[in-house]
Design brief:
Structural class: alpha+beta
Low-confidence stretches: none
Radius of gyration: 12 Å
Number of domains: 1
CATH topology: Alpha-Beta Plaits
Largest sheet: 2 strands, antiparallel
Number of helices: 3
Order of helices and strands: EHEEEHH
Number of strands: 4
Helix content: 10-25%
Strand content: 5-15%
Strand order of the largest sheet: 1-4
Mean pLDDT: 97
CATH class: Alpha Beta
Length: 109
C-alpha cells in the first residue's frame, strides 16, 4: 500500500506534506510533487497536511485518478527528492480544485 499524489497538486505544488514525511519519499517536478511508492511506508502523515487534498491512500484513489498511481511511480524515478518545505507558486490558490489539470503536468524538470 502507498499514498499517491493526485491531479489537484498540479500547478499548486504545496510542500507541507514533505515536512512530515519520515522517509523522504516525495519528489519534485516543475509543477507538482509525487510519492515514490517503493519508499512510502504508508504512515498517512502527509495526507492531512495537503492544503488542497491532493494526497490519497492507494485504496481510496478515485477511479478517475488511477493513472496517477503510475505517474507517481514513473516520475519519482527521474525527479529530484524534496525534503524541505518551499514556497508554492504565486498563483497556486488560483489553481486549487480546478478540474482537468492533467494536461498541464510538466514532466521535464
Amino acid at each position: 500500500m502507498t499514498f499517491v499524489v493526485g491531479e489537484n497538486c498540479i500547478k499548486c505544488k504545496y510542500t507541507d506534506c514533505v515536512e512530515v514525511c519520515p522517509v523522504d519519499c516525495f519528489y519534485e517536478g516543475p509543477n507538482m510533487l509525487v510519492i515514490n511508492p517503493d519508499e512510502c511506508i504508508d504512515c498517512a502523515l502527509c495526507e492531512p497536511e495537503c492544503p488542497v487534498d491532493a494526497i490519497y491512500s492507494e485504496a481510496e484513489l478515485p477511479d478517475a485518478q488511477f493513472e496517477f498511481l503510475v505517474l507517481n511511480e514513473e516520475l519519482s524515478q527521474s525527479w529530484p527528492n524534496i525534503i524541505e518545505v518551499k514556497l508554492p507558486p504565486e498563483d497556486a490558490d488560483e489553481w486549487r480544485d480546478k478540474p482537468g489539470k492533467l494536461k498541464l503536468l510538466e514532466k521535464i524538470w
